[in-house]
Automatic annotation (TrEMBL):
Polar residues composition bias: residue spans: 1-16
Pfam name, any one: Transposase_24
Region of interest (Disordered), ranges: 1-21
UniProt name for this protein: Uncharacterized protein LOC109724568 isoform X1
Coiled-coil region: 189-216, 329-365
InterPro entries the record matches: Probable_transposase_24 (IPR004252)
Record flagged with keyword Coiled coil: yes
Protein's organism: Ananas comosus (Pineapple)
Keywords, sorted A to Z: Coiled coil
Length: 382
């Protein structure tokens, strides 16, 4: 038996059986997006507004799809949960994301990326457990039906982990907690953040075309959009009651201040209460790094180190550029002075040659008229 992360993993017939099955389609590598990127010859940009801290806009779906592929290509499965993944593996995934997309140059973007990767990791594990592990009654059957795109050793590790009584007990507790949730959304696969972004753009276009400004605040319009069914009814009585509280809040704002300037974040915090990890009613966002314990500290240290490296590089580039400019200016001044000196010297030499020519002409004239020439200098010349 081979041990990995404290769990026994068979390494003989059970693992070998995974190789004996018929080869089928392998991991998705995103050829569609590769082709699109080659045609456009540029990295797609992704919007990540600071107030939403989620991928939104035109290329949001491509970002979501490709980050899911990155997780399946690089994330190890033989760990208990996301927080147990080695940091070097997370670093590699984050680096790959940056290589594929143009992202805002802001510190919070790292949290957005990690949130998206973690979400994909959890969904991937959930699907494996639901559609592959629970499909069979015994571990022997499960080992004989290893998913085609999963490493056999890691699949065996997962089987051992999910079969452990501790995991089963924890799973039942989580299931019970989920049954107590009162806030149900009807947004499908599109996040609340993306719905809000599209709603804002539609409202802006409508205002420009029709010159009409909506009297209903954003937080009420968003609540209706994500808490109502297609037939216009509320998803549950709690959603309807919270909407009435928002109506009362809006009325109070108009009566006391003459206008409602509350942001959606502020209004939802007042009506729905506070959660430490995200704003209730706006969907899960990135986990604040200050709540991440030792892992959060390491991520903050990583961010700080990256900033310091970038600043050092920028300072070095700036110093080198200034030095090169100064050297160029000094060299230009030297060359200018040398040129001026050469010009002055040439002028002096020309004047001397002119004076010598004049002197020779005078001597020749005096010689012709018979005037004796003294070889001794005169007193005047002395």
């Amino acid at each position: 038996m081979e041990q990995t992360n404290g769990l026994d993993v068979p390494n003989s017939s059970s693992a070998a059986s995974c190789f004996e099955r018929k080869r089928t389609r392998g991991k998705t590598i995103g050829l569609k997006w590769v082709k699109k990127r080659k045609e456009e010859k540029t990295k797609p940009g992704v919007e990540m507004p600071k107030d939403l801290q989620r991928a939104v806009g035109t290329n949001a779906q491509q970002f979501i799809t490709e980050t899911a592929q990155i997780v399946r290509q690089h994330a190890p499965l033989n760990v208990e949960k996301w927080s147990k993944i080695p940091l070097h593996s997370i670093d590699r995934m984050v680096k790959t994301v940056h290589e594929k997309f143009t992202l805002p140059n802001q510190t919070y973007v790292l949290g957005v990326i990690i949130h998206q990767l973690r979400s994909h990791f959890n969904s991937w594990r959930y699907d494996l457990h639901r559609f592959h592990y629970k499909k069979y009654k015994t571990d022997e059957q499960r080992r004989a039906h290893c998913p085609s795109d999963i490493d056999p050793d890691q699949w065996n590790w997962l089987i051992n982990y999910w079969s452990d009584p501790k995991f089963k007990k924890m799973s039942e507790v989580n299931k019970e907690n989920r049954s107590k949730q009162t806030m149900l959304a009807r947004v499908g696969t599109k996040s609340i953040a993306r719905n809000l972004t599209e709603m804002r753009k539609d409202l802006e276009e409508n205002e420009q075309e029709n010159n009409e400004i909506s009297e209903q605040p954003e937080y009420m319009r968003l609540w209706e959009k994500v808490r109502k069914k297609k037939d216009g009814t509320w998803v549950d009585t709690n959603a309807k009651e919270k909407y009435k509280e928002m109506e009362n809040l809006h009325t109070t704002q108009m009566q006391e201040k003459g206008e409602d300037i509350l942001t959606t974040r502020e209004a939802y915090t007042i009506v729905l209460g506070h959660r430490s990890r995200y704003v209730r009613g706006m969907g899960p966002g990135p986990e604040p790094l200050e709540n991440g314990g030792l892992r959060g500290q390491r991520l903050r240290a990583q961010i700080q180190a990256e900033i310091e490296v970038e600043m050092t590089a920028r300072i070095q580039e700036e110093v080198e550029a200034r030095m090169a400019q100064k050297e160029s200016e000094v060299q230009a001044r030297i060359e200018q002075r040398e040129a001026e000196a050469e010009a002055r010297l040439a002028q002096k030499e020309a004047r001397l040659e002119q004076m010598e020519a004049q002197m020779r002409a005078v001597m020749q004239h005096l010689s012709k008229i018979g005037m004796p020439l003294s070889s001794q200098p005169t007193s005047a010349s002395r």
